[in-house]
Amino acid sequence: MMKEELPEYSKSQLALRNGQDKPQIWIAYKGYIYDVGESRLWKNGMHYEHWAGQDLTEELYDAPHSDAVFSRFQVVGILRSL
Q1: From residue 6, how far is each of 13, 19, 29, 40, 66 by CA, in Å?
Q2: N or C: which end of the chain has fewer CB within 10 A?
Q3: Is the pTM of this model over 0.85?
Q4: What are phi and psi of 9, to 5 degrees?
């Protein structure tokens, strides 16, 4: 799927996909929204000190893994920039 074909979501729409308010567990990274719900590391919408439903681009600079980890997850949308 091309980037242009992906639906756009606002930060408030992303915030609802936190594994608590809605069943989806989504995070944003570098403008893309990923569905991390299949990962055992994101159960209940939390991964270590990180919460789902938000843009984790800045927080991942300190992560012990590279952004290659996102290749495991489906891109479900684009984070709308205001």
Answers
A1: 15, 21, 15, 25, 24
A2: C
A3: yes
A4: -130, 145
Q: Which structure tokens are listed for 54? A: 């938000």
Give the Cβ contact number of residue 39 at 10 Å: 14
Per residue of the chain (82 residues), give pLDDT as tens: 555 689 999 999 999 999 998 899 999 999 999 999 999 989 888 888 889 999 999 887 777 677 788 889 999 999 998 6
Q: Express the helix, strand and coil content of the chain in percent, nearest 5 each.
A: 30, 30, 40
C-beta of residue 13 within 8 angstroms of C-beta of residue 54: no
Q: Which residue stretches of 1-82 are H helix?
A: 11-16
